[in-house]
Amino acid sequence: MKVKKKDQIKKDNKLHPRNQHKERYDFIALIKSCPELNEFVKPNIHGDDSIDFADPKAVKWLNKAILKHYYSIENWDIPENYLCPPIPGRADYIHHISDLLRTCNYGKIPTGNKVKCIDIGVGANCVYPIIGTKEYDWIFIGTDIDPVSIESAQKIIDSNKRLQNNIELRLQPVSKDVFKNIMTTDELIDITMCNPPFHSSIEEASKGSARKVKNLAGKKGVKPTLNFGGQNAELFCEGGEERFIGTMIRQSRQFSYSCFWFTTLVSKQSNLKSIEEALKKAEIEEYKIIPMGQGNKISRIVAWTFLTKEQQKIWKNSKWH
């Protein structure tokens, strides 16, 4: 099959309209939900309430407060040195892929347990499934190659009743595989998502984190904490984001008709050319590039499907209606 269409959506540097975090953080409300956050909230140089985003402990308590206030998560924690993700950007991914499903479903977002998602690299934080189950009542399969991440995510699920029976975790035993050992050809998945390792080496990850700390704290010589935590598999892999996504695209062919949409974040604009070439080689039916923006940071989601329009119609009519 040849690619019929490339859908390039107009670039927009704002958070998604349904993102609950598109305005400034409401620290009064967040502290009310999580009083421990109060210790870290101080006026910034503009006189506005804020936290020191270069302080991993402050960022972690902000996440705890956000997840409790907006997503009804009473108990959330991650092991030391594991990735503490920014919630607004994670929420944006969820809302954008809900719109992707809407374009295939007569203009209506499919919700409830009729929609099954796979989060490739769920991490110790389990944030994508937390948001997706709250916002759209989807059910999730979270996968990871790291047993500690799976154990941590399971603790979060077990200690929050709302998540139980809505999120299943699967350990990927082979680090070079993305979908094999996780997906089966007889299990229908509506959408997969992934925030792939960004860097190609530990040295590159360290330099990136040093730049981040300098930008946030305005200081040189501060020993960086890798992305405020983050194990090797969370931050880098051989070949970086470009190679990881290329592998993902090639391996998705094995499950061509078991999944409606495969998606992944792409942080580097320069990687799009090789990703588009990989998509064409994989003989996908259709792909979309969905820009996202948060502050000064621009990224995008790449989504692809092997299903023809007729197969898509059969899928949505039989599964979502």
Structural account:
It contains ten helices and ten strands. The chain is an alpha/beta fold and 321 residues long. The protein has one domain (6-20, 79-319): Rossmann fold, CATH 3.40.50. An eight-stranded mixed β-sheet has the order 1-9-10-8-7-4-5-6, with helices on both faces. Strands 2-3 form a two-stranded antiparallel ribbon. The two termini are 28 Å apart. The relative contact order is 0.15.
Sketch the major β-sheet.
8 strands, mixed
- Mean pLDDT level: 88
Question: Which class do the helix and strand fractions yield?
Answer: alpha/beta
Strand order of the largest sheet: 1-9-10-8-7-4-5-6
Shape: globular
Distance linking N and C termini: 28 Å
Number of helices: 10
Provide the fold topology.
Layout: E1 6-8, H1 27-33, E2 42-43, E3 49-50, H2 56-71, H3 87-103, E4 116-120, H4 127-136, E5 139-144, H5 147-158, E6 167-171, E7 189-194, H6 202-217, H7 232-235, H8 240-252, E8 259-266, H9 272-281, E9 286-294, E10 297-305, H10 309-319
Parallel strand pairs: 1-9, 4-5, 4-7, 5-6, 7-8
Antiparallel strand pairs: 2-3, 8-10, 9-10
Task: Write a concise keyword list for the protein shown above.
321 residues; alpha/beta; Rossmann fold; eight-stranded mixed sheet; two-stranded antiparallel ribbon; 10 helices
